[in-house]
Amino acid sequence: MPLVQVSLRRGKPAEYHQALFEGVYRAMRETFDVPEDDRFMTITEHDSSTFSVSPTYYGVDRSDEVVIIRITANNTRDLVQKQALYLRIVELLQANPGVRPEDVFINLVEVLPENWSLGNGLAQYAVQQG
After folding, report:
1. pLDDT per position as a tens digit, 53-84
2. Spans of all domains in the chain
3. For residue 37, which of 9, 54, 57, 73 sits 20 to 30 Å off, Cα-Cα?
4. How far does the chain reach from its first CA to its final CA, in angstroms?
5. Could you say which residues form the signal peptide (predicted)?
6. CATH homologous superfamily for 2-123?
7. Contact 2, 28 (CB under 8 A)
8. Burial category of 24 from C-beta neighbours within 10 Å (exposed 0-12, middle 13-18, buried 19 and up)
9. C-alpha to C-alpha distance for 7 and 48, rounded to whole angstroms
10. Which letter does DSSP use for residue 96 in this model?
């Protein structure tokens, strides 16, 4: 049950947004065992005054076109799956909509399964105690 939140500078067209959604979702399906229809994603655009990213941190040459992708997911994947996810997201977003690999910043936030309510006020993934 990943929740994907994408942040970028304001000004991209709807087609660009859709390509971001499709690329990240496809990468999660291919590498993270995300089931079909498990799709919860948002995009937030920012003006330059509300978006600050280091252009050189850790030796990566970022442009103003950086895309920050935060994925919140259950803590059930191993390091190999995580590395495959990061690489696949970069490959797909480079192909469409043309994001430079250096401009793809990914943050994976892992949580326990009981930290989700998918609706109706229930913790659907929680293991019942008792």
Report:
1. 999 999 999 999 999 999 999 999 999 999 99
2. 2-123
3. 9
4. 25
5. none
6. Macrophage Migration Inhibitory Factor (3.30.429.10)
7. yes
8. buried
9. 12
10. T
